[in-house]
């Protein structure tokens, strides 16, 4: 039994935004905060060691990963897609590749034009910099006193540098900082890894950065391995939550607000389970409707992605074989002896590029991740030998899906339907991107010297064959957003202050509030949302 049953603020979900919110709100000693997380504390070695992504993102360790699936996707030849989501404090920042990417500045300016006042780039940049301590940059785009440590890679693989050179050889620029003045180009990703102190080389998840250091605050209660089953609503006001822990139900009350940070798949699910959502769907499941809000679960957007692998004997690549055993052993010694900066600190996706399919475009519409291994099906299948892979994605897909309920039972997974590639424009753009990578970037001298032998694409000659390859192998890049859309239109779920329309004392603050997906990886933006939400909540408290 927890020591108290009433708090000023109840935060549901200890992911990338929830950890920030708990830490920021509890900075005020007169504020009581309770954070409830379905997973564990997020401190296990598999999470702290960046190379652990190999078995956490794949779902082999399901205690850290919800490992959801989509329904069969028409645009993927009827296949079900995989939807890994972090389970535990830190959320998906505890199992991702640790890449620190904010998207393009115009993404946020676009949000503002959609009626999201206060969310233009000039408004959100201070929250990015507030969070950050950067190892390499000290300028207007970066912070140097925040909790989130962001750093250059200490020892990137030579092939990763060759990828950057190959992209340049094809006429694209180099980008020294994807989060600076110019995203366009190729470069090495910066990482959310500790670069100073006793944890050097470890993953700097949202929990490790913001929450773990302050969990002893007397006004902060963190409950782990507890599943919130319902938001209690009385007369249009969110009054608290019910959660399940060790097969027992508990109920706690919120004096001020309930803040939903369960992510783009589970935040809309919990709203609907609590009677907030499309009335017709809720009634079908026998759920009492507290607010008919048709946008809940709609507007699901995600970065669709396809991988292309190459076998190679280039030195230092990771794969299945005896050399990797030696590399892992040396990496373990480095981890123990010299500050965790060896092979076990690799994110695998060391280099990348933001490219324009047409040079006349104002911003990139392709993103590439270059990985120093061959893997298929999210790491659940590993080809024998060594090599490298390209992950090829489009930044602003036209296909839009939804999240809905499978039943009124809170422990059932949501129904996830991203509608990947149902808009033909997405497939056409992916075909063009794949051809550019295979026919130009991989053939450029800096990469060609590695003698990469293609997996599965050697016989592809036509656009139609590329379409078949893509629809048979494409899937998520792990960036679902938008299902509790922020805005002022009829499909908006929250207003620009992140307050749920029609329900007092209830906000949503996670990736689900993005009205449009950003042009890049989404974790840094979700942390920013947590920072901005905390400021708005504390400001409202003073009113």
Describe this structure in words.
- With 543 residues, the chain is α/β, with parallel strands linked by helices.
- The chain is built from 14 helices and 23 strands.
- The strands form six sheets. Strands 7, 14, 15, 16, 17, 18, 21 and 22 form an eight-stranded antiparallel sheet that branches.
- A hairpin with a 5-residue loop joins strand 3 and strand 4.
- The longest helix is centred in the last third of the chain and has 20 residues.
- The mean pLDDT is 94.
The structural class is alpha/beta
Number of strands: 23
Mean pLDDT, to the nearest integer, reads 94
- Uncertain segments: none
Radius of gyration (CA) equals 22 Å
- Count of helical regions: 14
Shape, principal axes of CA atoms: globular
Helix fraction, binned, reads 25-40%
Largest sheet: 8 strands, antiparallel
Distance between the termini: 34 Å
Strand content: 15-25%
